[in-house]
Write a structure and sequence with these properties.
Elements: H1 2-29, H2 37-49, H3 51-62, H4 66-91, E1 95-96, H5 103-121, E2 125-126, H6 128-148, H7 166-198, H8 202-227, H9 231-256, E3 259-260, H10 263-286, E4 289-290, H11 292-309
Antiparallel strand pairs: 1-4, 2-3
Helix pairs in contact: 1-2, 1-7, 1-8, 2-9, 3-4, 3-7, 3-9, 4-8, 4-9, 4-10, 4-11, 5-6, 5-9, 5-10, 6-9, 7-8, 8-9, 10-11
């Protein structure tokens, strides 16, 4: 039992820390692009902090462990929409919600992506065509957000000018990606080992355990962004990562290696993730301030997932 636990404990931190390096180098490459904070959060940072899930999806699919991919991708969607967003006011402070900031749109796009995913996963198999549809949903949704989100104040704190050669950041990004993949591979092997040791379905361990491990980058980046006066960046990262998990991450692995999944678990997980995204959309459409009260509500929703799924 020691080795599976050690693999998870060591693998996830490696993937998380390496993903932060990827974000840092990618941000330097994007310096001076004059892109709105929310758009950066929902795209660049969302993909950067979502790398552990994407790597996990690919490694799990190559190992023919489809439930690990589905559990982590759907679990991360639900976790980021509830646990991560819920903890944000307690760790970073209250956030003012912009009516036209894109948060509600992104949450609704996540609901739509999950609904499509339910239709694709109902047969217990994710084919390359299914994966291509999921990834296309992310691409179309991202383009829509880029065009519809108002261009307010530009991002200045996260994308500071960097005098070092662009080549340095390209190499740094590639090296960090290697560590992300290596950490994810180690963690996936640990999850499989724990599932066999305790007789618990891999989906359950991935939905509740792996999703927390792979969602740590979002929480770290969001808290730092709020404390540095960039709340749009934080919210954009949270909802953008959730949208990417429900579509891009879920489809990345099967695009390379189509896999069988447990349809009943996948559908339950997708429905819970839809509830999480729907609650965020409804909540942020009505409130002007995301504080500890709204945060506590999201934490209660997350706690309810344990009761409903387990």
């Amino acid at each position: 039992m020691f080795f599976p636990i050690a693999a998870v404990v060591i693998g996830f931190p490696i993937a998380v820390l390496a993903s932060r390096r990827v974000v840092r180098h990618a941000s330097a490459l994007a310096a001076g692009s004059r892109i709105p904070s929310f758009v950066i959060g929902v795209s660049l940072l969302a993909i950067g902090t979502d790398l552990p899930e994407i790597a996990n999806s690919i490694i799990a699919s190559l190992a023919d462990q489809g439930d690990v991919n589905v559990g982590d991708s759907l679990g991360s969607t639900a976790t980021q929409m509830t646990l991560v967003l819920g903890l944000l006011p307690f760790l970073g402070g209250a956030i003012m919600i912009k009516r036209n900031g894109g948060t509600v749109r992104t949450a609704l796009l996540t609901v739509a992506g999950l609904a499509i995913g339910i239709g694709l996963m109902a047969d217990g198999f994710i084919s390359r065509l299914d994966a291509l549809i999921l990834i296309s949903c992310w691409l179309v949704g991202s383009v829509y957000l880029w065009r519809r989100v108002p261009h307010g104040r530009q991002l200045e704190l996260e994308l500071e000018p960097d005098d070092r050669a662009k080549r340095y950041h390209v190499v740094g990004t590639l090296v960090a990606l290697v560590f992300v993949v290596g950490g994810a591979a180690l963690a996936v092997n640990g999850i499989i080992g724990l599932a066999e040791e305790f007789g618990v379905p891999e989906f359950i361990i991935s939905f509740f355990g792996a999703s927390i491990g792979t969602s740590l980058p979002e929480l770290v980046v969001m808290v730092a962004a709020v404390r540095r006066g960039e709340p749009d960046l934080a919210i954009g990262d949270a909802v953008g990562s959730s949208f990417a998990d429900a579509t891009l991450s879920l489809g990345s692995g099967p695009l390379i290696a189509p896999t069988a999944i447990t349809a009943s678990f996948a559908l339950q997980g997708a429905l819970l993730a839809m509830v999480a995204a729907g609650v965020v959309a409804l909540l942020f459409a009505r409130v002007l301030r995301h504080d500890r009260r709204t945060g506590a509500l999201l934490l209660l929703v997350y706690a309810g997932f344990y009761v409903l799924l387990i």
